[in-house]
Amino acid sequence: MSTVIATKPETAAPHKAKATRPGAARGRGAPLLGLLAWIVGILFFLPVAWMVLTAFHSEQDAATNPPSVAADLTLQGFREFFGATSGASPWPPLINSATASIVSTLLVLALAIPAAYALSIRPVRKWTDVLFFFLSTKMLPVVAGLLPVYLIAQQVGMLDNVWTLVILYTSMNLPIAVWMMRSFLAEVPIEILEAAAIDGAGLLTVLRRVIVPVAMPGIAATALICFIFSWNEMLFARVLTGVVAQTAPVFLTSFVTSQGLFLAKVCAAATAISLPVLAAGFAAQDKLVQGLSLGAVK
Amino acid sequence: MTAIAPTAQTTPARPDRTPTAMRRAGDWSRRAPLLPALVFLIVITQLPFVATLVISFMDWNSLYPDQRGFAGVGNYVDVFTDATLRDSVITTIVLTVSVVLISLLLGLGIALLLNRSFRGRGAVRTLMIAPFLVVPVAAALLWKHALFNPEYGLLNGVLTWISGSDAPQPDWITEAPLAAVIASLVWQWTPFMMLILLAGLQSQPLDALEAAKVDGASALQTFRYLTLPHMRRYLELGALLGSIYIVQNFDAVFTLTSGGLGTANLPYTIYTTFYQAHDYGRASAAGVVVVAGTIAIATFALRVVSSLFREEEGRA
Questions:
Q1: How much is the ipTM here?
Q2: Of A141, A147, A167, which is closest to B290 when you measure between CB atoms?
Q3: Which residues of B fall within a CB distance of 8 Å from A197?
Q4: Contact at 8 Å (CB) between B80 and A7?
Q5: Domain-by-domain residue ranges, chain A?
Q6: Residue A191 pLDDT > 60
Q7: Which sign does the torsion angle of CA B135, B140, B143, B146 carry?
Q8: What is the pTM of this model?
Q9: CATH architecture label of A91-256+269-292
Q10: B38 chain-A contacts, CB cut-off 8 A
């Protein structure tokens, strides 16, 4: 590797030659700014670290002032959260959250990829208006549509049903997904598509065999963001579910009010419920960056 | 089969193969992939809104079911004269504007720091994005109980560490409720802004920066005349997405203060009108007003001020 790069200077792979970035050149003169970045990063992480640490403390150690950083660690909080000693099991809500998030994410992708194709690769006329319409549905506050949704769900017997959440989460994430996918698909080289068209490939074949493989990183980024937003959603879940279809965030709030406050247990619950999103987000950081900057912009 | 084929082809050329019909067929093949998403979204989001619109003109309190009837604009008069609702409009504006502005500025500063190379840059980025990944309800509970709590919260604990047992021990949420909500939301949204802006900084063409350096531009000049214009779309995107989500914030208000102490924003107020007062008509009217306001502001922002929709007119 190194010998190859040595013979080919930065021009061959400018994005890999990070040392040539001007930012780097300025950076050498000011190590203090690197230190500042570390301090800011640690400050932002501190509450998360505190949540995790408290989750491993006993209730007595969690509720002291000044805080007991070096107190003994225990799994008691997690044991109570998972219902070993008391009350409700977190598994049904966790499974509901997983079902609602994963199924709605898959549905979003199935709807958004063809739509994005129609907005970028062979755009319909007035495609900016359509794109604007998609986004404008996000401006409609959830609460403004909540009552009819509630009444309809009540009429058709879909209250406290996880599939109601699947449908609503799909509509909640679809606009953003279309926006993101549009910019990712716009980067698919037109020559590949022309070649596929000459070979007589139909729309579905083109989507499945050409576009999806090429745009895979963008699809992954979109899926990750849809998953995060669905897993985190609370307002719909709170109003439309009760016992059977309760999701993890709603379970978390019930946890506090019904039993008084046990700080270590609440922190253990908050940690456990955030874990899937934290793990997915950390594992796919680059995809996340790519997705959020959505090339609205490209 | 081969014997039959010629006879099958003797059918006359289909009459609809005229140029307009062909173009129409082309248009439909372009629209077809769009339709499932469009229809789904219209059915799930627009129809309920139409229902909200209808209910907003009705007297409908589920506690008094036999009094259901047409109310005219009565609910709207209530909405505009109700002091609680007016206050929650102001709260929503203050909350959204301050959270978006503060987290954009902080995010820009941190993105600039992280765009430089230093030891452990990847690790710092990982630390930075964690707040965005914590489930919002969990984050709100964390701030309320583990950080802001006057007796054993971390903030007052740190004060005790620094200046001993006679340190001031403020009850943060009671003393500065709106600021407490803003602080927790800024903490959650700054990483989001930072990620968008960092992507923007890294997409900046290097040759322009090199050229500026060769021409002897100062770091400040480079930032003002090269980086900032390039970042405009990214700043607008962050502000747009941030506003859409923060206007609707429910979790933080619900968890931290339960809308008390002047922190009830519109989503929370509508939620209580609907869920506790059971006044469906008025809740719907308030919802319609929010929608009208948001769409008006967003349309202006997107179509007039922003550059997001002015880019390439596509490959049409």
A1: 0.82
A2: A141
A3: none
A4: no
A5: 91-256+269-292
A6: yes
A7: negative
A8: 0.83
A9: Orthogonal Bundle (1.10)
A10: 115, 130, 133
